[in-house]
Each structure stands twice: as C-alpha cells, then as structure tokens.
C-alpha cells in the first residue's frame, strides 16, 4: 500500500465514522479514464464566442458549437455541418444544404433558419463577415435544410470565412438565441450542436468548466483535422481546471492531477522534460507574431522616417530571447507580417529587418524624421508575460536610440482602454503599446486587423497605407494562388515601408500532456475530438 | 448586551454605505475598460465602443451609482459583466472554499501558536524560547507563496501524500475536503502562527510577573494550572484581539494562497474581477468583505466578556 493510500485510508475511516457513515461519491477507474482534465491558457470568464472574442472562449466554444465549414491543417475549408454547396456560374449565388441528423443540445433539429440567424449575428463582429455583409443582397432559408446567400459581387473566400479558426468563428446556434441577442449583447443560454454539451450548473468562472459528450451528435466520416473531419470524442467528459499559477499547473501535471496543460511556460519545460510520464510538443506550428504598435496619429511616430528608424535599430533576437529563452527551436526572425510556413509567407520588402542592426542608420532616420525629443508614451501591460518582456526590450532600445521614453507600466485592462484614445500623448493618449498576434490570424489579410492601413478606421494606432489596402483588394480579387502571392508581396512591402506595426519575431509555444493521453493535434486551438485517455 | 449587539449591527449600515460610495467612486475613476477586455485584442475601436454602450458603461457617474444603490437596497448585487451570472451566485460558488480555508487555518494556527507562545514564555531564555522566536521570525519573513511551493514540492510531488491543488466540497466527504486544505492552511497559517505565538509569549511573560500568579504558586497550584487556568485566561484579551486582526489579514493572504493552490475561493474571484474590471463583482465582494470585518470586530468585542468579567456592554 502506498503511503498516500495508507494515510487516506486511516483518515477516511475516521472521517467516515465521524460523519455517521455518509461516504463521498467517488469516480471509478473507468470514469476517471473517460474524463479529461485540461488546464486552459486562461480563465473561461464568459461563454459567448461572438460577443467575447478571446481565444479561450473560442477554444471552449469549438466543442459546444459546430461550424458550417472547418479548416484543416492545410487551411483548406472543408464541409462540416453542410452536406455541400452549389455556386452559380457568376459566383454570386451560393446555395448550401445542411447534412442530415444535426441536432442542438436541447434536442431540436438544426434548421436553415438557425444558420441564417447565426450568420447574421456573427457577421457584424468579423472582418470577413463585414465584407460579405457589405456585398450581401439576400440571405434566406429556402427550406428546413437549405439556405441561399446572394451577393452583389463574387466572394471566393466565402467558405474560408465560414470555416476559419480566427475569432469570431461562425458558430451555429438556435435561431431563438441568435435573434434574441445582437452581436454586442451576451447570450444567456449555451445551446450548440457540437460534440460536447456545456454543463452550465458546474461552471465556476475563474475555476472550472465542464463539458459532457453529446450522445446525439452525428460526426462526419473521416479523420479529424482541426475544425474539419469526424469530431469523434474519445472521452465522455472534459473538465477545464483554471490554474492562474504556472508552477501549480506544472506540479499538478507531474502529479497526475490533470491530463493536459495547454500552454506551459518555457521556464518550466526542462523540468517537465525530465518526467517520463509527460509528453511535450509544439502546440501550434502557426505560432505567434510578437508586435508593438506605434501611434500613427501623433508625434513622434506620425513620421514614417521615425517609425523606420525603430525598425532599423530593433533586434528581433533580443525580443525573442526575452520571450522564449535560449531554446532556438522556438523562434525565428520575421522580416514581414505573415506566418512562416504558410502560403502567405513572404519576406518581400523586409530588408530593413534583416542583418546586423544599424544604430547609425536609425539615428540618421530619427534626425531626418525631425525627432524633437518628444516623449514616447510606451504602454506596457505587466500582467501579460509576453507584453512585459517585449516592453522592457523596447524601452531599452528607444533609450539607446536617444529617444525620450515615458514607460507606463500598467495592466492589460488599462492598456485596452488607453490604446483606444486618439488624443495626443500629452493629453492621455499614447505613443506605442505591445501585443502579439496568433499565427493563425496572420495567414492572410482577410481577418488580420493589425496589418490593415485604413487610417482613422483601422485598428488601434490607425495607420494609413494605400499600398497595403491596394494589396488587400488585389488579394480578395485574386483568381489563383499565383495572383494571391503577388498581392501578398505587395502588402508586405507596403506594410514594412509604412511600418503599420513593428514585428518583433515569430515564436512558438509548447503544450504538455500525460503519457496516457493520445490523439492531441497540433493546431491554433486545442482540439478535443480524437483525444483518448488510457 | 442585546441592545449593544443591535446597536453595533445597526452601525454597520453607515459603514457599509461609506464603503459602497468609496468603492464605486474608486472604480469609476480607475483606469481600465471591461469592454476592451471583452472585445478581445483584435476588436476594432467601434466594436469596443458598442460593447461599452451595451453594458451601460457610457452612462454618467450619478446614473450608474444611483442604479447600483437602488439594486443593493433591494438586495440585488447585480450581474457580472463577463459571466452574465448574478454576483450573489458567484459569491455563493466561491464562499465555501474560502471559509473552509480560513477555518482550517484558524484552527491550525490557534492550536499550534498558543501552546508555542505559552511554552516559550514559561521557558524564557532557553533554547525552546529561542526556537519558537526563530520560527516566528521565519514565519514573518518567508512569503506565503514560497512556503506554499515548498510544501507542495515536498508533500505532494516528492512524498505523494497530498494533492498539489484544487478544492473538494465538504459534501463529498471529510477527508477529500481536508486533503486539499492541509497544505494551503499550513502555508497561509505560517504567518499567523508566528504572529499569535509572539503575542501570546509577550503577554504571558507580563502576566507571569503578576502578584496573583505568585500567590497561586504559593498556594501550591501546579505549573499547568498556573499557565492555562490563571495566566492564559488573563493574557487572552490581547491574543483575541490579534486573532481578530489576523482573521482580517487572512482574507488578504487567501488571495495568494488560493492562487498557488488553485483553490476557487473569493480571493481569486476578487483578483480576477479586478484584472478584468468586472465592476459589479468587485463591488459585491468588497461589500461582503467589509461586512465580514465589521462582524469579526463585533465578535471580538463580545469575546472579551468571556475572558474578562470586568468588561461589560
């Protein structure tokens, strides 16, 4: 008998007697094997994937709500809830047919009217959805299983828009819910048609969330690959256990108290490698792109030359080592804006980010840009390890360049508020903030807000870049992959020239799980279908 | 006595009102925006603005404060901006782990610290006294999270006696409940043990010099009788005071302990709410904490009468 079992038996006997014989319900070995305990990247604080677009919400939602299409690991959109589609010869009328047997978790069948309402709720929050909405002439349910989408101009990327992994994903929910709450109001009922049901009464926000296998789910045929293929659940129950402290999560995984930890920090990876019961691998080959955004509206970064000076001086290696340490397998330099290893990847125009760093050039550009010792309000969220590490490097860099840095150490909530302010830095505005972008969001310009150059209506920082916008328009109209590639080169070149933002490098992260767990896919989110536990 | 208790309970109302005004105003002027957190990093400024409007965060201070006070007056703490759950439900979900942690910590601390302090006073100047005082210095100086990590490493990872993290409700059995609380309670209690032990020692040393102790000795009362019946009872008032103050401090300490041991208690709820700017939750929890402080103070005042018959209300 193990020491712990001995201790437990003794104390349990005592407590059993003390409680008058009321024994605690216990999970059998079989039940334990059918339950996967997962430590997510963050707390599941809300559960509306359209209203709240945080990655953690998307990741949980992918179990509960299904999608019409789903991209595979080659980023190809494949049918998921739909049986198939027909497109008119002019590319303007799309007719979709739902596959048979789809049911919501409340037992009602999934109908075309549910799909129409769900798309209508999703589209205003999604960059691709907004584009489709802008050219939409009609979106109607033809009958219970057929819906039609009529557009004013062709939109070849429609299936991708409906099946992408970027937030917000076009999840399908019952019409009564999708019409009751607009995109900017949170739903209060969590009914999907995905392979797992959300057990609301076991949800303790900030601590745990529970998902139970949906017995009436009819998976597609085929091997699962990301959001596509057969979403066959290998476990009956998935328990999300929120652990704010990485050391605790590492200890819990080592001790077998949890089965899978989504994103172990790199500092703890060597420790876990030494444990023969733990497996580690790159979580998502699409990784992340580190970045800081300069405010294009106000001095000093309203000057293109000054923004370029920063690019000339910055060392991506410094940033990446601050983020991932000395594990060279986890990062690479990125002279561009798109995810390495994808068709979008290009280094066109990226020379300023390559080779030895040139402080002399940087200082010359600063002078040419008319830098007049204006303070640089550098906002750095300290509660996010990625932004904190990048912020420290940037502050040092700017000081070495001779800039007047006003380092604002704050938290992410405050950063989120302050970066929305267009006031001059001296009046509560800002000059730069740090963040990062999931590589899956940077595989094309469609849903990639940070690369767009639409001026006052652009993402925070409000860059204006005609070159980027021309390239984006060309990409959407591109008839084939070769034309898309030309457009991507154009976007990258213009984005670097105008410095829409400063890429600090490409980095990967690990995921870790117990050796009795199998079937974990590499991808931009944790996919629970196909995962088994012995 | 009854009239005194009623008076004190009624006195909590203005205290709570001041706390409510203070907390609401502080949150109003504090930087941060829940709408930006909800919208996510990729959201456009327009998205953030629309979410802010849908949450009513664009309304003027007085309108928001008035609505909140009206809800509070009707016993409604509001709904969390993020989870869409009533704040009262969220507190209900989290109160048991925190209460359990505090109770176990308190029992552990009192049962260890008071005998330690008494022993140290009785053996003043010996190695026992120095050992107790050395432990007290350690207890004060080593942060709770360091103690927590060390305990988890030794007793969970190396010895495999106890779990690393989590909480099991009492309804699932005494041992599963206690098993999860032992390490956090020891970690959290370390400071508390040090504090109570020091105060007990100091007070006991003073009491042991009193004439009535000398008289008791002269009458032939044995050593344990002198210590625990005569001396400790008279030394109890300052010790009770420090236990009460420490109890309030436990709530603060629980924030760190709950994070280190992944206990889903009120401490973590508060920190999460602050980081996300979930105003209704912050306001609800702070009101609850202030109410608990007031009650603890009342309980301490009443406890004095048990140990010192000269005190009357």
Short description:
The complex is a heterodimer of chains A (534) and B (313). Chain A is 30% helix and 19% strand.
Describe this protein's structure.
The complex is a heterodimer of chains A (534) and B (313). Chain A is globular. Chain A has 16 helices and 21 strands. In chain A, the strands form five sheets. In chain A, strands 8-9-10-1-11-19-12 form a seven-stranded mixed β-sheet. A six-stranded mixed β-sheet of chain A has the order 14-18-13-17-15-16, with helices on both faces. Chain A has a four-stranded antiparallel β-sheet with strand order 4-5-7-6. Chain A has helices at 3-18, 29-33, 55-64, 112-122, 127-135, 158-163, 175-180, 246-254, 269-273, 304-313, 316-324, 359-368, 385-401, 412-418, 466-477, 481-498, and strands at 35-39, 69-71, 77-79, 82-87, 93-98, 136-141, 146-151, 196-198, 208-213, 237-241, 260-261, 278-282, 288-294, 331-332, 375-381, 404-410, 432-438, 502-507, 510-514, 517-518, 532-533. Chain A is an alpha+beta fold. Mean pLDDT of chain A is 91; it is low at 1-26. Chain A is 30% helix and 19% strand. Helices cover 78% and strands 0% of the residues of chain B. Chain B has helices at 2-29, 34-39, 45-54, 61-73, 87-122, 127-141, 144-158, 174-207, 211-218, 223-260, 266-276, 279-307. Chain B contains twelve helices and no strands. Chain B folds into two domains: 2-73, no CATH class; 94-308, Orthogonal Bundle (MetI-like fold). Chain B is mainly alpha-helical. In chain B, helix 6 (127-141) crosses helix 8 (174-207). The interface between A and B is large, with 72 and 63 residues.
